[in-house]
Design brief:
Helix content: 55-70%
Strand content: under 5%
Structural class: mainly alpha
Oligomer: single chain
Strand order of the largest sheet: 1-2
Distance between the termini: 45 Å
Shape: elongated
Number of strands: 2
Length: 109
């Protein structure tokens, strides 16, 4: 019987997860841009600009600031709700910025 070390299993599971989530992000297109290369360049430029705008208006928290040290369920739930609200507000600013630049969110079938 061959024993697979735990780090190898963990790495394989992470690789499968990354492959599974690879196409799950929002997809924007600009109906005003016909040229594919211009569209890709503008998307990269506008994505960076809108990310910076969203992060300046709703600064995201990172690392330990996203976790609650109080182990009670109430404190944990309050922190989780605050994180979700912050992420949603940041994403709303980003989406509004992208729409103002002519980008439309492509609907998934």
């Amino acid at each position: 019987m061959t024993v697979i070390p735990r780090p190898a299993i963990r790495a394989a599971l992470l690789a499968l997860l990354a492959l599974g989530l690879g196409g799950c992000g929002p997809v924007y297109y600009n109906p005003n841009l016909v040229d594919q290369s211009e569209s890709k360049a503008r998307l990269a430029q506008d994505t960076t600009l809108c990310t910076n705008e969203a992060n300046s208006q709703i600064p995201p928290t990172y690392g330990r600031e996203r976790f609650e040290t109080d182990p009670t369920i109430e404190a944990q739930a309050t922190r989780w709700v605050a994180n979700v609200a912050e992420d949603d507000a940041n994403q709303d600013v980003f989406a509004t910025c992208m729409q103002a630049r002519g980008w439309v969110l492509k609907k998934k079938p």
